[in-house]
Amino acid sequence: MLTTLIYRSQLNTSCKSIGLEAIIEKAKRRNSELGITGILLFNGVDFLQILEGAEESVIPLFHRIREDKRHQGVVELMRDYGPRRRFDNVGMILFDLRVDTPRSVLERVLRYSKLDSYLTSDDRVFKFIQTYITRPKPQTIKGTLFSSGDWQLEAEQAPFDKSLPLQPNQPCQFAFQPIVEPSEGKITSIEALIRGNDGGSPEQFFKAISSEDIYKIDLETKAWAFSLAEKIGIGDHKIAINLLPMSLVNVPDAVEFLVDQIGKYHLLPEQVVIEVTENEIISGFHQFHSAIKQLRAAGIGLAIDDFGSGYAGLSLLTRFQPDKLKIDREIISNIHLSGPKQAIVKSIVSCCTDLEITLVAEGIEKLEEWYWLESAGIKRFQGFLFARPQLNGVGQIHWPRPAC
Ligand SMILES: Cc1cc2nc3c(=O)[nH]c(=O)nc-3n(C[C@H](O)[C@H](O)[C@H](O)COP(=O)(O)O)c2cc1C
Description:
Blueprint: E1 2-11, H1 20-34, E2 37-42, E3 46-54, H2 55-66, E4 71-81, E5 92-96, H3 102-112, H4 117-120, H5 124-134, E6 151-157, E7 173-181, E8 186-195, H6 202-207, H7 214-232, E9 238-242, H8 245-250, H9 254-264, E10 272-277, H10 278-283, H11 285-298, E11 301-307, H12 316-319, E12 324-327, H13 329-332, H14 339-354, E13 358-361, H15 367-375, E14 380-381, E15 390-391, E16 396-402
Parallel strand pairs: 2-5, 8-9, 9-10, 10-11, 11-12, 12-13, 13-14
Antiparallel strand pairs: 1-3, 1-4, 2-3, 6-16, 7-8, 7-15
Helix pairs in contact: 3-5, 7-9
The protein binds flavin mononucleotide.
């Protein structure tokens, strides 16, 4: 299938010489053999390349180019399919903005185009090219220049009990996972993740419960999370718990129950954050809304969990603004490589900055993901990179530190 792939990258200035002419000559031959056109734009700082050809040729070539040490911070911007080629099958052409004016580069690009002008004016590929060419001046793109050698992870034991024995006479156990702010070196809260008595997942735990009992048990289990929080000594740290919003609606006096249990284990309502997913909120929004009011009146905090995984998206924030918003791990995963994910997260950051909503990026597994997100303005993180959930305790935290 005919594919167009666009990426941007930056010149690796630590390479003595890029040897651009040699790259172009070799690429011309290689691309022609593969039936690929590689339009390469360069301004002395960064590259924009358009690769067009059969999918089975373009994707492996892109993977090879991505590994090339002569450039860095390769971010895929677009991968699309189409009925016809946009460019002549010409192998490779370089458009060098150090030599030619933006206007003449644009004219030359259009000359190589096979599309009628009425099609190019509304075409995403040509818009990417136009924006690149007409940008005021080449910029170093923040967050892309990660070098793994510059960072190391330093392990530190969290100031709580590591792991208490299985708690007897309870329907469930909890694993604790910290949410951290690496720039301050602090733990901002601890999420209590439900586990079965055999250590099984939340899904397994809830699957074994009948549908009539699910909300009652969901609510009641939170008492065990508060009890464990007191036992491991969370002090004045915050504790985040997951709750089905309908548990607040369907179980009589649910908020009173939570407030009583919070007090029983010597916590304050302001220390507790209830996490609910966006789909759960939207599907019962009207009923849930009055429960939210009661929670807020009691001083309990609210977070939207897995934000971006469901169908509500940003429109949810027009109806309800939580204290915290946790960006779904699917958006976070490999964000340093994906232009669309980066654009979405930038818009979430901007929106939450305006609304004073604290953002948490969840599911962080790589230093590169953390580095990009921190550069985009996110301060709080949760994920295996920093700390794994630990049954009945909090384990080691791994802090990113500049390598000396
Ligand atoms: C910015 C940039 C663009 C490149 N574009 C192409 C290309 O379109 N086609 C190609 O074959 N190689 C291209 N290369 C070179 C490849 O990354 C890689 O060096 C080459 O495919 C590997 O060939 P080799 O294994 O024979 O050295 C590019 C390199 C850079 C830095």
